[in-house]
Amino acid sequence: MRYDALASKDAVKKIMEAVKSRGIKPEFVNTKEDALKRLKELIPSGAEINMGTSTTLNEIGFIDLLKSGKHPWKNWKDVILEEKDVAKQMELRRKSVLSNYFLGSVHAVSETGEIVIASGSGSQLPAYIYTSNNVIWVAGIQKIVPTLNDAIKRVREYSLPMEDARMKREGYSGSTIGKLLIFEREINPARKMTLILVNEKLGF
């Protein structure tokens, strides 16, 4: 299986129907520019936001937007990085998972609707699972695979080696899978889960 090939129109249609039945709102856009525009529309002015580390958010220009400061949101990342005391910074990191809007990407989506996300530390997972009332994932459609087993294989055989290589290029020791999340469904109607599928190859 080619893990970097864009999914077919039929596969995208299956995904959108499957995740909707699991309490996740699917959206489809054609380009990374469209994805960035949609994020600006979905996040209201004044909202507290945070995010997991994401190559996809970087590639669509969202990270650059946050760095520019030309946005109407409270970015918890800025608050955390401004704090130099290690103990206080850790406390801020714990509080940040309560952000009303939490953004990121996923590593694989099965045509049956399960979403798979790998993490080293697991720091973004509480927000995805429970603590944030608005979660927005952005994913290129090359991350679509037929089954849950294929999704887990994609994480181990493709996403991890690619992220490991990226980390080493940036001077770190590499990457590992510390926690593996299989998101089956959202049962809390108060939570808004959104998956934006982009008709491009984005992230790993």
Summarize the structure in words.
The protein has 204 residues and is of the alpha/beta class. It has one domain (9-198): Rossmann fold (3-Layer(aba) Sandwich). It is 40% helix and 22% strand. The protein has eight helices and ten strands. It has helices at 9-20, 32-42, 55-59, 62-68, 76-82, 86-96, 125-131, 148-169, and strands at 24-29, 48-51, 74-75, 101-104, 108-110, 115-119, 134-140, 144-145, 179-183, 192-198. The strands form two sheets. Strands 1-10-7-4-2-3 form a six-stranded parallel sheet. α5 packs antiparallel against α6 (86-96). The longest helix is centred in the C-terminal third of the chain and has 22 residues, at 148-169. The model has no long low-confidence stretch (mean pLDDT 95).
Fraction of residues in β-strands: 15-25%
Number of strands: 10
**What's the CATH architecture name?**
3-Layer(aba) Sandwich
Number of helices: 8
Please, what is the oligomeric state?
A: single chain
Helical percent range?
A: 40-55%
Largest sheet: 6 strands, parallel
What series of H and E elements makes up the topology?
HEHEHHEHHEEEHEEHEE
Low-confidence stretches: none
| Spatial separation of the terminal alpha carbons | 15 Å
The overall pLDDT, averaged over residues, is 95
Physical arrangement of strands within the biggest beta sheet: 1-10-7-4-2-3
Over all CA atoms, what is the radius of gyration? Answer: 16 Å
In terms of structural class, how would the helical and strand content be classed?
A: alpha/beta
Question: Judging from the principal axes of the Cα atoms, what is the shape?
Answer: globular
Q: What is the CATH class?
A: Alpha Beta
Q: What is the H level of CATH, i.e. the homologous superfamily? A: NagB/RpiA/CoA transferase-like
Indicate how many domains the architecture comprises: 1
Annotated CATH topology:
Rossmann fold
